[in-house]
Amino acid sequence: xxxxxxxxxxxxxxxxxxxxxxxxxxxxxxxxxxxxxxxxxxxxxxxxxxxxxxxxxxxxxxxxxxxxxxxxxxxxxxxxxxxxxxxxxxxxxxxxxxxxxxxxxxxxxxxxxxxxxxxxxxxxxxxxxxxxxxxxxxxx
Length: 140
Known about the structure:
The protein contains 5 helices and 4 strands. It has helices at 3-13, 19-39, 70-79, 84-96, 108-118; strands spanning 50-56, 62-68, 122-126, 132-138.
């Protein structure tokens, strides 16, 4: 977690700002991070905008789904609104089910890495009947 995010969340926890003000500050901060990352010439991989699922069936059925990857970043913002005690309970329950995952491990940095990795993600399936399924990430 960055220092700026910590400060915003501390102000919220101490009652110095409202939830709405904290959300505005976090959104502004996230926008600045996004602009910095877009303008970073050292960035090797372009971040895709969408996850696509396309199915072409021999019987004429077609499926074309486009999921905006911004929902992943929105999940990080929502996580910051969950009280620490609740996050600990969620982590505990996930652990009981055998899921080794902690909400505190979700950060802007590792989400950025995930989005970069998705730029190269592609699944293509074609069966003997000529039906095709394609799942990939991209801009269009």
